[in-house]
Design brief:
Blueprint (H helix, E strand, L loop, with lengths): L1 E6 L2 E8 L4 H13 L4 E12 L1 H16 L3 E5 L3 H9 L3 H4 L2
Parallel strand pairs: 2-3, 3-4
Antiparallel strand pairs: 1-2
Helix pairs in contact: 1-2
Length: about 100
């Protein structure tokens, strides 16, 4: 199970992110981003398991943020996600 929530420092994602729940997570994240300021921290340290669906989700978030002039900074990106991003030449997109 995955959870999206607001923390003092921004938005936190926890639990497992997979193809079965990524659409619900996307809806929750985009709703929070839509209400956010011009700078948002997204914390990923409590993501326990993920696959390429999380990488795709982060690209969707960056695209949405770009269109809304919101700066997003990802914190504690899971190692397996960084490796997937490098293989896809997307690792620079995740850096702030």
């Amino acid at each position: 199970m995955s959870q999206v929530g607001i923390v003092n420092e921004g938005i936190a994602l926890s639990g497992e992110v997979n193809f079965g729940n990524v659409n619900d997570i996307e809806n929750d994240l985009l709703e929070l981003l839509h209400k956010s300021d011009k700078f948002v921290n997204i914390h990923l340290e409590n993501v326990e398991r993920c696959n390429s669906s999380l990488l795709a989700l982060l690209m969707v978030i960056l695209n949405f943020a770009h269109r809304k002039n919101i700066t997003v900074k990802f914190h504690n990106i899971p190692v397996q996600l960084i490796l997937m991003a490098k293989l896809s030449n997307l690792d620079n997109s995740l850096k702030s």
